[in-house]
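Q: Could you fold this chain for me?
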Amino acid sequence: MLWSLLVRYLKPAWPLLIGVIVFQLGQSIASLLLPTLSADIIDNGVVTGDIPYIWSVGALMLGITVVQVVCAIIAVYFGSKLAMGMGRDIRAALFERVVSFSQREVGQFGTPSLITRNTNDVQQVQMLVQVTATLMVAAPILAIGGVILAVRQDVGLSWLMAVSIPVLLIVVSLIIVRMVPYFQLMQTRIDRINQVMREQLTGIRVIRAFVREDEERARFRSGSEGVAETALRAGNLMALMFPAIMLVMNVSGVAVIWFGAFQIQAGDAQIGTLFAFLQYLMQILMGVMMATFMFVMIPRAAVSANRIGEVLATDSSVVTAASPLRPHEFRADIDFDGVEFSYPGADEPVLKNITFRVAAGTTTAIIGSTGAGKSTLIGLVPRLFDATAGTVRVGGVDVREWDPDELWARIGLMPQRAFLFSGTVASNLRYGNADATDDDLWHALEIAQGREFVAEMPLGLEEPIAQGGTNVSGGQRQRLAIARALVKRPDIYIFDDSFSALDVATDATLRAALTT
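A: Sure. Below is the predicted structure, expressed as structure tokens.
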């Protein structure tokens, strides 16, 4: 899944990808040239005392270093742009897919998990691309080029590479194998802590009303400790990796100096050659180390990519018809014909053999005990989910055949939980009709029994509304939500227990105003 995700979202940005490869190649070639020039300046300049030669070769090395720095800067810039663009596109794709989900798919994944997948999981994949563009492209060039040039410098010491590189790979592989399960567990526990925090922020009033602060603190602490414990175990293994790598590198460096000293003493090698071989060996091991750093990131990014892929591969159960209908003549009637609905995994359907008709211009009340399926029933009309059996028709047309935007434009739905968006009173009321005038807003507020309290606000229609409408009371929030539906002027109004926060007098006045 990780590979297919990268191919899908990096393919459109192939010019940046080529730019990263080209400039990383230039940087790596410059890095590989410097040890050879260092050996040359030592053997032919320092040892012989040829000052002009030292100046000329030193100037060449300085020029190569400047080229290396410029290439590194441009490569990092291109790599960052590539990674950030890919993250942007994946988030946009996830958002588009989640917006298309019905209530069934949202419930299947859970809101906290969907948030984590669109933030933390995308960040892990994005970070992998960022590090790959800045490190991984250069790692094989440094390793392969370093091996070739090191052998050219001194074949007699090449056996040290055949020992140190496999040892380094074995040590790193053993650590990575143990880290992968922790990365998988980490994302699950992040989901859990997001769920707990979201519940606590949403239900803070309930928590305080029932004096459950201590229990909720303990629940949050438990989730946090789970994340911390997993992160510490993965971090301890990661912390072990780098000392192990440095140990192998330093032991390899000591071995080169030790055995190289004997060769110099025997006259089989020069000091500059030994110095260059040591630098190439360090570059080779550095390339291996960068590759292993990538291997540390790949498992966690792969877990995140799988979670992202699950969302992108899930289609909404509410599917738009191949040739959606947009009827020119509309009758505001609703028909339920043998409707049945079952939630996924439920033993029994919550709705069974429901048949009735709501004629245009009439009011129909659906009464039942808590959990009887009233909200489920009315959710079938605007296609929040589809009936598992039977047919729901609006205006004589099966809701599955309607163009979704056209169907939703005909319906004004007030859910049980009135939700307001951050902005102002006016921006919330115009949510369903951007062209509504101030007079339209005041008229809708008057019907919804909200004109009085809005007029008393210091800024009136421009009074700020916090996210979720938390800076107004429950009754005010419900009346603003009802007014928002009235501003839309739909053909069908659906009230899902939308008067629950209103007193009896306000409820009666509002219902009377709606019928006029």
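A (continued): The chain has a mean pLDDT of 81.
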